[in-house]
Amino acid sequence: MRKNRVGLRALYESDPIEADRRLWGRKSQANRRGFLKDMGKLSIGAALGAPMVFADFFPEGMVPAGLLHSLEFFVLPGKDPALIVLNDRPVNAETPPHLLDPEVTPAPLFFVRNNGVPPELDAINPDNWTLTIEGEAVSRPVTYTLPELKSKFEVVTHHLTLECAGNGRKEFNPPASGNQWSVGAVGCGSWTGVRLADLLRASGLRNNAVYIGYYGMDKHLNGGDQVPISRGVPIRKALEPESLIAWDLNGEPLPWLNGYPLRLVFGGWPASCSGKWLSRVVVRDKIHDGPKMEAPSYRMPCKPVAPGEKVADEEMCIIESMPVKSLITYPRTGATLRKSQSLEVRGHAWAGDLDVREVYTSIDFGMTWQSCALTKPVNPLAWQHFVTKISFPQEGYYEVWARAVDREGRSQPVILPGWNPKGYLNNACHRIAVKVTA
Ligand SMILES: Nc1nc2c(c(=O)[nH]1)N[C@H]1C(S)=C(S)[C@@H](COP(=O)(O)O)O[C@H]1N2
Ligand SMILES: [Mo]
After folding, report:
1. 39, 258, 282, 410: which sits with the fewest CB atoms below 10 Å from its CB?
2. CATH number of the domain that 230 lies in?
3. Residue nearest to atom 21 of ligand 1 (CA)
4. Same domain, 329 and 284
5. Nearest to 308 by CA among 400, 412, 149, 173
6. Is the confidence at residue 142, as pLDDT, over 60?
7. Are residue 148 and residue 282 in the same domain, yes or no?
8. Domain-ending residue, one of 277, 293, 309
9. Is residue 258 located within the same domain as residue 349?
């Protein structure tokens, strides 16, 4: 998989002129006439996933059709072809919102956010995979094989919501660099594993423990020895009964791209805390200092700032529990119905460590709101489901907006929340378009 392929295709969608410049270069008309240069042929082939056979005849300036739409043969191993691939080195792919409709997100549809290169699938043997617990704040460092983990500790299953802190980044202005996630870097799976707390206690957790950090078996993109990411959570979060070291998602081994064969799962916190391909947990006597723990990664300005403002590293605070949010998963945007029909609207809502008290919908751009039926979470840190029926007063274009309010009364904003340099925590209301005909 080459970066070029997805990169160019995405560029053709967002900035066709720049994409054209990259593909065709800035050579003079005389040099370019008619034919692709050898370099052009190479990059076009890389972009399309296969060499362009009649490249010599390809008309100057034309955009290969294969770059204009998602390519069917571009499928991530173990993943549904419907995922929207934002980047393939590292792999980043989000779920279209209408495919998040099931109460539990199907494993092939669970979003993927990699910072580096996952360990080779063929090289992973779950029977001799090991996990080590060590660090300044345990008295008995221990290494377990995966089969030992399964037999030595109580096995538990929880539904836990994972959302990338950068979900929704695409909307920020001025733009923030990083994956331009729309709304689909979120999912709620049924995770099976052991409690992190049980392992920490079995290792003789000491009372100087402040933070845990993870190390996975993925490699840095530059091929070097440094891990691409090593984050963690404060000890109070690590010790919660829902904080898991998991090997199954929805009753099956984890998909390779989601951390097979072993990962951490911390529901309600930035998904970056949930280390994949997990091989080591360190228990620290200070805030963990692995790659991407430091500012500005996964941090927000401690105090609100104006859009575009520079923020000093010391003014950036680590993101913990994620803010209240909701997603309309039915119907998909663009639905059409007749005036005589009413529309069932449904979706999910979540609120980090809290639960959601209420979800409302509006069809008049927030002037009035109607309350939805809302389920209780199946367990703490699982998303909740809302449903409502909507009637429309007359023919025309509408938007359905959904707005959740958490247990402590905090609401999603209808407009973008605070701009921040890295584009995190966009929990603005989700909107879909609906057309009503006679
Ligand atoms: N080892 C490792 N763990 C990782 C990552 C990674 O790149 N390597 N990415 C993190 C980030 S930023 C996110 S959002 C989640 C994504 O989990 P998923 O790919 O299973 O959806 O994994 C986290 N755990
Ligand atoms: Mo993330």
Report:
1. 39
2. 3.90.420.10
3. 112
4. no
5. 173
6. yes
7. yes
8. 293
9. no
Average pLDDT score over residue span 264-284: 98
At residue 329, the pLDDT reads: 98
Ligand 1: residue whose CA is nearest its atom 11: 272
Radius of gyration of the chain (CA): 24
Does residue 179 sit in the same domain as residue 227?
A: yes
Mean pLDDT score of the chain: 91
Residue position matching structure tokens 């571009």: 74
Q: Which residues constitute the domain of residue 222?
A: 121-293
Residue 274 Cα, ligand 1 centroid: separation in angstroms? 6
Instruction: Give the atom of ligand 1 at the shortest distance from the alpha carbon of 254.
Output: 20
Please indicate, yes or no, whether residues 242 and 182 belong to a single structural domain of this protein: yes
The closest-lying atom of ligand 1 relative to the alpha carbon of residue 259 is 20
Identify the burial level of 96 via C-beta atoms within 10 angstroms of its C-beta, where 0-12 means exposed, 13-18 middle and 19 or more buried: middle
Overall average pLDDT of the 342-365 stretch: 97
Q: Quick check: CB of 372 below 6 Å from ligand 1?
A: no
Question: Where does a domain end: 241, 270, 293?
Answer: 293
Q: Which mutation among 86, 113, 227 tests ligand 1's pocket best, with the greatest number of atoms within 8 A of CB? A: 113
Residue owning the nearest CA to atom 16 of ligand 1: 113
Distance linking the first and last C-alpha atoms of the chain: 49
pLDDT in tens, 47-67: 776 777 787 777 766 667 666
Instruction: Report the SS3 class of residue 390.
Output: strand
Kindly report, residue by residue over 147-158, the tens digit of the pLDDT. Answer: 999 999 999 999
Q: Is residue 25 part of a domain?
A: no
Residues with CB under 5 A from ligand 2 (ion): 113, 164, 272
Same domain, 336 and 250: no
In a domain, 2, yes or no: no
Q: What is the pLDDT of residue 42?
A: 72
Pairing, β 142-145 against β 155-163: unpaired
Asked whether residue 30 carries a pLDDT value surpassing 80, the answer given is no
Residue 146 has pLDDT above 60, yes or no: yes
pLDDT at 257: 98
Counting atoms of ligand 1 from 1, which one is nearest the CA of 90? 7
Distance in angstroms (rounded) separating the CA atoms of residues 105 and 231: 25
Q: Are residues 286 and 330 both part of a single domain?
A: no
How many structural domains compose the chain?
A: 2
Question: Is the pLDDT reported for residue 1 higher than 50?
Answer: no
Contact between 35 and 24 (Cβ < 8 Å)? no
* 192 Cβ below 6 A of ligand 1: no
Q: Please compute the mean of the pLDDT values over residues 97-101 and round it to a whole number.
A: 98
The Å distance, Cα 164 to ligand 2 centre, comes to: 4
Domain for residue 394, yes or no? yes
Q: What percent of the chain has pLDDT over 90?
A: 80
Examine residue 405 and state whether it is found in any structural domain, yes or no. Answer: yes
Residue nearest to atom 9 of ligand 1 (CA): 114
